[in-house]
Automatic annotation (TrEMBL):
<feature type="region of interest" description="Disordered">
    <location>
        <begin position="567"/>
        <end position="587"/>
    </location>
</feature>
<dbReference type="InterPro" id="IPR002372">
    <property type="entry name" value="PQQ_rpt_dom"/>
</dbReference>
<dbReference type="InterPro" id="IPR011047">
    <property type="entry name" value="Quinoprotein_ADH-like_sf"/>
</dbReference>
<protein>
    <recommendedName>
        <fullName>Pyrrolo-quinoline quinone repeat domain-containing protein</fullName>
    </recommendedName>
</protein>
<feature type="domain" description="Pyrrolo-quinoline quinone repeat">
    <location>
        <begin position="48"/>
        <end position="195"/>
    </location>
</feature>
<dbReference type="InterPro" id="IPR015943">
    <property type="entry name" value="WD40/YVTN_repeat-like_dom_sf"/>
</dbReference>
<dbReference type="Pfam" id="PF13360">
    <property type="entry name" value="PQQ_2"/>
</dbReference>
Length: 604
């Protein structure tokens, strides 16, 4: 868990575990705006620093990543369960914290307040003790350490903590015991024990711990101050069939939300219930005057994003099909009335999604990787932090980006191409191309919305056979890159990401066509990606691979008629380096990490 900062907007996502916690993240936007120009300006992500950082460690809270204005914490790739402290602005390494040999170090929880990092180590079914240790975020020096003997009965909940400005609250043991510690010394202020047989869920705000309990079917929420104890409490609706306590969420100024079976409540810092919202809650964000929350998926598989007035609970706007919480391990962040998250799905690249809290306007900020291997882990010090794993943990990186304004251009790196730059996907194949399957194929164009703007031409085309039992095909224009080289780099990044998420084979049919398998609700689906010039196209068919392999070269030929595609000159050389075959493609791998990492780590 991360201790929230004193002021500013906060965003949280629910954790569905026995003792739940909300992670608080802040993101300040660029404080040095570009000078006014007649050319329209758009926001882009600019890499500030990047360094090797191990992939998330499942034995550490948040994967071992913690982001705050005071420090960035990442897993130590050279020592299991160790931690590395980084300067948020520069990425400079400050110190390394080794694992505690006496602790039951299967799981660790992290929190920061008043330039103090607090680490709780310990979980059931492992030998050793429960240990809570405080370190200086500047030097890594140990400030204090508390150790408790392990219970005779394994503790399935583990050791959890809430770190606030006013102290540290530790929950441990069976039955659960709550102990309040002084932040500066680690000395015990007071202790309490939960009623036996009760289940708990927790979250921390700036100065208090939020605890919800479920005891014999009765649910209750309590706000607990580390110094004085109970601040306020209220009865909650029983959880129904889930048989677990409601999940509390707290933000810096004390505003509280708590989930119920099919709704959530909003409380003020003093315990006054502001509103009860009849929506199932997935994630929540707070700005100065707006509450943003994401509701559960509808029948179409999409979530909905809503904005409420924080003081009254009245609705402001609702956006459908947002899917702002789509990548496991990602966090949400907000600042200056803007919500930030990771976007996954169509199109192919990874994106940071921004949502204006006042209007609901959405923007996608492209990253130089694919969506399956990148995730936002937090935001602080005016930067947003993205963890990217490229072909295995040994190539994992943490990159800090700053949001800046640049002139809008369909060929600028880091900018979503305007609607006019997307050709009609139905022109990438013709009825004549498909006569080897059957004459009379019918193209069905499908339009999509990107970054809240409807594309001028359809970006997907379904080719339906004349006979009911014929082979159906789908062609999707998955990206328009600034250059052919950038498109080819993204195709190579897709290969790398695929190796991480699937054991199915990945095959290069030629230097610009990649065959792989993608998971769908219906099972594994064979897909061929085709790159020609700036364009990346995705092909699927209700048939075996031979059909796609035959169609892929036809698509590449048709794409030569699309704008900006250069052909070999009379001497046989390509004008665009992205159209040049690579010597190593036939070996089955195009060197996964090279091009994407180079793009990520280039300081600007």
């Amino acid at each position: 868990m991360q201790g929230p900062a004193a002021t500013g907007p906060v965003v949280l996502r629910l954790r569905q575990i026995a003792v739940a916690a909300a992670v608080v993240l802040l993101l300040a936007t660029d404080t040095h705006p570009e000078p006014h120009d007649a050319i329209p300006q758009v926001p882009v992500l600019t890499a500030v620093w990047s360094r090797a950082a191990d992939a998330p460690d499942p034995s550490l809270d948040g994967g071992g990543f913690l982001v705050s204005d005071a420090v960035v914490v990442v897993p130590d790739r050279d020592r299991a369960r160790g931690l590395v402290l980084l300067d948020p602005a520069s990425g400079r390494e400050r110190a390394r914290i080794p694992p505690d040999p006496a602790a039951r170090s299967v799981h660790a929880y992290l929190g920061v307040a008043e330039r103090t990092l607090v680490v709780a180590r310990g979980v059931g079914y492992a030998p050793g003790a429960d240990v809570v240790t405080a370190y200086s975020v500047d030097t890594g020096q140990q400030l204090w350490r508390r150790q408790w003997p392990a219970d005779r009965e394994p503790d399935v909940l583990g050791t959890h903590l809430a770190v606030t400005r006013r102290g540290v609250l530790v929950l441990r043991g069976t039955p659960t015991r709550l102990e309040s510690l002084d932040l500066s010394s680690g000395l015990t202020r007071w202790r309490a024990t939960a009623r036996e047989g009760c289940q708990l869920a927790t979250s921390e705000s700036l100065d208090a711990l939020l605890v919800t309990t479920l005891c014999r079917g009765a649910a209750r929420i309590r706000s607990i101050d580390p110094v004085s104890g109970l601040l306020w409490s209220d009865d909650l609706a029983p959880p129904g069939k889930e048989e677990r306590p409601p999940t509390p969420i707290a933000v810096a100024d004390g505003t509280v939300a708590v989930t119920e079976a099919d709704s959530f409540r909003l409380y003020s810092a003093q315990g006054r219930m502001i509103a009860r919202i009849p929506e199932s809650l997935w994630a929540m964000g707070f700005t100065a005057d707006t509450l943003l929350y994401e509701s559960a998926t509808d029948q179409g598989g999409h979530t909905r994003l809503h904005a409420l007035d924080r003081s009254t609970g009245r609705p402001r706007w609702t956006a459908g099909g947002v899917d702002v919480w789509s990548v496991e391990g990602s966090h949400l962040a907000a600042a200056d009335g803007v919500l930030y998250s990771t976007w996954i799905g169509w199109p192919l690249p990874a994106f940071v999604l921004t949502v204006d809290a006042r209007t609901g306007t959405r923007r996608l900020l492209p990253l130089p990787t694919t969506a399956t291997d990148s995730r936002v882990i937090g935001a602080a010090a005016g930067l947003v932090y993205v963890q990217t794993a490229l072909e295995g943990d040994e190539n994992a990186r943490l990159t800090a980006y700053r949001v800046r304004q640049r002139p809008a251009s369909d060929q600028a790196a880091g900018v979503v191409p305007p609607a006019a730059a997307w050709p009609n996907a139905c022109t990438a194949l013709t009825e004549q191309d498909l006569t080897f399957l059957a004459p009379g194929y019918v193209p069905i164009p499908r339009r999509r919305t990107l970054s809240d703007a409807g594309l001028t031409a359809p970006s997907q085309c379904d080719f339906l056979p004349p006979a009911e039992r014929g082979i159906s095909l789908t062609l999707s224009l998955d990206w328009v890159a600034p250059t052919a080289a950038a498109a080819h780099d993204l195709l190579r990044a897709k290969e790398c990401a695929q190796h991480q998420v699937s054991i199915e084979p990945v095959t290069w049919l030629d230097p610009h066509s990649l065959e792989l398998f993608e998971s769908t609700p219906e099972g594994s689906l064979r897909v061929v990606y085709v790159q020609q010039g700036r364009y990346l196209v995705r092909l699927t068919a209700t048939s075996h691979s031979a059909v796609l392999r035959r169609i892929a070269p036809l698509v590449r030929q048709r794409l030569t008629a699309w704008p900006g595609v250069t052909l070999p000159s009379a001497t046989g050389h390509h004008d665009d380096p992205g159209d040049q075959p690579s010597a190593d493609w036939a070996a089955g791998s195009l060197g996964c990490a090279s091009a994407p990492v180079a793009a990520m780590t280039r300081p600007q």
